[in-house]
Write a structure and sequence with these properties.
Length: 378
């Protein structure tokens, strides 16, 4: 964008006062900048719309959750999200500790069984002469190892009850795998495994409930984080849009003023043609043209019942802006008339617009007539 503006500034202006091509070239450059701004704003708006609709889609997707149902959601700040996450983690850890405590009760009952002796400590491979034990068993396990890992405080212990359950099963399955079905250790392991599974089934509903709750909390936390990120991006998009709009508008106005300053003065004949062209505008475009006059002339009443527009009294800036506007408006008006053809349906609005147009045009003509009597033509 800066490059475009620099190129505009580097164009040589005013070397040939009678050459309107330079003015048109500047107008074309300004129009190009407007086009780029429009495209950029459209892209920013698309990004913002994407994030807003994505947030709504995510919210709709979680409407069926028992945790999120009928719950009003707000995007929390990053600090609040961290606090909420810490509280959830602490509460979940406390609930899991309670489940582990209940599992510990089951484990003690199994360890106190009269047949639990062979499984309380690691297998004495060398003492028993079990030279092929490590070839058959990939991961040895025993109750003392399980107990130590349950009590570990260095973060290496079990994270949930299912991990403990898997190791308890491994104790018995290792014994059943290594020993023949008729061997006493195999029979003892199979019996104790059956008793363990019965007790585990009693605790399993609580474990499943906690797992479901944890899954929903994680989904909720992930959604909160995603919504916060999307909101931040949407805010950034809005800020970029506002900043770009302000910056571009500032530079465009600067370019326009520079163009007007460099342009030659409009001749009397051109002013006359401009006045005549104004009378050919539609009521809506004519009102816009009067607003252009009012921008540089606060005392000018563009919406008054009777408009007194003196073309000769306008600044060069206003005159050239009017010329550019009138030219474009008449081109659009001509294309519109050609495509629509004759239209016999006259509405009340059209009638009012035509009435207003006639009043303004009569006032312009009246003022021009007064000026022509007072001042000679150039």
């Amino acid at each position: 964008m800066d490059a475009s503006i620099t190129n505009v500034r580097n164009v040589e202006i005013g070397k040939h006062k009678g050459n309107t091509d330079q003015v048109e070239a500047f107008k074309s450059c300004v129009d190009d900048i407007f086009t780029k701004v429009d495209k950029l704003e459209q892209r920013v708006n698309e990004v913002e719309l994407f994030y807003l609709t994505a947030s709504k889609r995510q919210l709709n997707g979680y409407k069926g959750s028992s945790v999120l149902k009928d719950k009003e959601r707000h995007v929390a700040s990053a600090k609040k999200q961290q606090q909420d996450a810490s509280r959830r983690e602490a509460a979940a850890a406390k609930r899991m500790q309670e489940l582990m405590r209940q599992f510990g009760t089951i484990l003690r009952q199994i360890m106190q069984h009269k047949w639990a002796g062979p499984f309380l400590h690691p297998v004495d491979v060398e003492g028993l002469g079990l030279h092929d034990y490590y070839e058959v068993i990939d991961k040895p396990m025993d109750f003392s190892t399980i107990k130590n890992q349950m009590e570990a405080k260095d973060g290496t212990g079990y994270k949930n009850v299912r991990e403990i359950c898997a190791d308890v099963r491994l104790v018995f399955k290792n014994a059943m795998k290594y020993n023949d079905e008729r061997h006493d250790v195999h029979v003892m392991a199979k019996t104790l495994l059956g008793k363990f599974e019965e007790k585990w089934l009693q605790l399993l509903p609580k474990v499943a409930e906690e797992e479901k709750r944890r899954e929903e909390e994680e989904a909720e936390a992930q959604l909160d984080m995603q919504l916060a990120q999307e909101a931040a991006h949407a805010k950034m998009a809005r800020e970029i849009s506002n900043e770009v709009s302000y910056d571009i508008d500032f530079h465009l106005e600067e370019v326009r003023e520079m163009v007007i300053r460099k342009c030659r003065k409009m001749s009397t004949e051109e002013k006359r043609k401009l006045g005549a062209a104004l009378s050919r505008l539609s009521a809506e475009d004519l009102s816009k043209a009067l607003e252009i006059v009012a921008q540089n002339n606060p005392s000018f009443q563009a919406t008054a019942e009777e408009v007194d527009l003196d073309i000769d009294a306008q600044t060069e800036s206003t005159l050239w802006r009017l010329k550019f506007f009138v030219k474009d408006a008449l081109e659009v008006q001509g294309k519109s008339s050609a495509s629509k053809g004759d239209n016999t349906n006259t509405t009340t609005t059209a009638t009012n617009n035509n009435k207003r147009k006639k009043e303004i045009c009569d006032a312009i003509a009246k003022t021009a007539k007064k000026k022509s009597k007072k001042l000679p033509l150039d």
